Amino acid sequence: MSGFDDKNDMEKLSHVNNLVYKEQAIWFLNAFWVTGPKFGSNPTAAEEVWTFHKTCVELDRDKKEEGNELNEFDAHRLIEKCDSALTVQEMRRVLKEIDVDFNKMVSLTEFMIYKFEVDWHELVNAPQGCDMGAINQAQAGLDNANKMLQQAVDAANKAKDDHAASQLAEEKSKDEEVNSAKAAAESKKAEAVLAEAKEQAESALAELTAQEDAFKKKCDDLEAKGSDDTLGVVKRNKAKAELAMAKAEDPMPLRMAKIHQEAAVRKVTKATVKAGAATAAAETAAKLAIAARKEAERAAIEASAAAKAAEEAIPVAQAAFADAEAILEEVKKNNSGSGEGNIWYIDRELEEAKRFLPRSKFAAAQAAAAAAKEAAKSPMKE
Q1: Which site among 172, 247, 271, 313 is 20 to 30 Å from 264 CA-CA?
Q2: What are the angstrom distances between the C-alpha of 156 and each of 298, 374, 375?
C-alpha cells in the first residue's frame, strides 16, 4: 500500500500481536478513536472491543488475561460467538484472511481488523502517545481499588462462611447435648436395673441362707434323736433313716433357693456390665457435648470477628473506588494528547469492578455478617 513499508509494518504488527489481549484492545481504541470506527463517538463499538477482549480471555483456557492469540479451534469459536451469521465455510475463509502474519494463530488485533474492516497498516502506525504518568497514576488508583474490593469480597465471603460454620457448630452442639441427655437417662435406667438385681440377689441369698439353716437344724435334730438313748429303738432308727434320706437329696425348698440365688447372681453380673457400659457412654457423650459447645462458642466468636472485618472492609473499598474515580476525572480533564483508549479502558474497568460493591455480592454477605454478629451476642449454655 502506498505510504507504508510492508516489511517494517509487519514487524510492528508482530509487536502489537504479542501484546496481551487488554493491551491490544487499548492500542486498537487509541488508533481509531477519531477515525475508522470512531470509538470516541461510538460507545457501542467501544463496548464491542471490551466484549471481544473478554471473550478471548474466556476462550484462552491456558493463559487467560496473559494470552495474546488463539489457536484455530478457539478462533473459530470466537468468530462463532461474535459473528454467528457466518457459515462454517465462510468462517474457514475468514480465518485464513484475518491471520495477517500467517502463523496459524489469531490475535485479538487480527480479529478486530477483520471485524471493523480497518487497514492494519494504519493500525500499527497510529500514534499511541499520551501522558503515561497520569495514565499510570489512574491505573494504580484502579489497581488499589480492585485490591480493596477483593479484600472486602474475601472478608464478606469469610463472614458468610463463618456464619454458616457457626450455625452448623451450634446445631451439632445441640445434637450432642440431646445425645448426652439420652445417654445419661440410659445410664440411670441401667443403674436402676442393677440396683433391682442386687436387691433380688440379696433376697435370694437370704432365702438360701434360711433354707440352709433350716436344713442344718433338721439334720442336727434327727442326728440328735438317732443318738438319744432315752428314746426307744424304733424312734432312734426312724430318726437315723430320715437323716439318711435328708442327706441323700436336698429338699425341694433348698433346691429352689439355690436356683433363685444363681439366677440372681447372673442377673447382677449382666446388669453390672450394662450399667458400666451405659455410664461410660454417658461420660463420653457428656465430653462430646462439652467439646461441641466450646466449638460452637469458638465458631460464633470467629463469625463475629469476620462480620466486623467485612463491615470495616466494605467502606474502605468504596472509598478506594471514589479515589480512583477522582484520579481518573483529573486525568480526563488534563489529557491533551492521544491515549483516549487507555482512559476509556480504565474507566470501563472501574465501572466493571464497582458492580461487585454492596448492592450485589456484599448485600448478602453483609446480612450474613450481621446475623453472625447477632448470634455471637446470644448467651451460650454452660
Answers
A1: 247
A2: 19, 16, 17
